[in-house]
Amino acid sequence: MTGLRGVASSEPKFARPEISQRLLPDVSRPRLRIMPSPTDDARRHAPAAARNCSAIIEAMDPVLPIDGHVLEIASGSGQHVTAFADHFPKLTWQPSDPDPSARSSIAAWAGDAAATNILAPLNIDTTDPDWPHGLAEPSPDIILAINLVHISPWAATEGLFKGANLRLSAEGCVCLYGPYIVAGQPTAPSNQSFDASLRAQNPAWGVRHLDALITASEAHGLALSDTTAMPANNLFLVFRRATA
Known about the structure:
Layout: H1 47-60, E1 68-73, H2 79-87, E2 91-94, H3 100-113, E3 142-146, H4 154-167, E4 173-178, E5 180-181, H5 189-201, E6 208-209, H6 210-218, E7 222-230, E8 234-241
Parallel strand pairs: 1-2, 1-3, 3-4, 5-6
Antiparallel strand pairs: 4-8, 7-8
């Protein structure tokens, strides 16, 4: 079995780092924007992706195996998966998005980078009752979703955990990044404003309570194992299969 970076190969494939929570100063949160590209370029540009990419890579580093298969849900512009594939070249990255224009952008970003470890983007909608049936082998070692939970109906999060329970590899995990409301901790003013703006755009959207995610994951055999505070009042969450 493959070991973690810098660890002898007899060690488990996945690390289980201690839960890390640190308070960071409130940072004003810009409104969600995806900027169009020139008409001859299918790539879309999400300013937030450029800002948070390095921090997400740092958070993922102790969690990801040296090699394996990562399924990204709601890949959006494709900027993240292209950067991740470059930083973790021994992993195979499977992006996905239900939006055809997003899938075109993902393919364009991957093609521009000449990435050989990014597969063609899939049309995956975690609210579809057929998900994840039909997903090709191998089973993903990591299911990753960045900024999905708050910019989608709650059914998308429930479906994500349901599909993960069905298809995630035995030692695999679900990694989520985004803003969350944590019980017993003051909600940053920027997250309060962001929540209001999301609900104004779509009443089914909104910053979710972390306790609700924990309950939803446990309903599908998963449990929160790691929580890392991130810049701009975000969290990086890791859910693993629950142990008896």
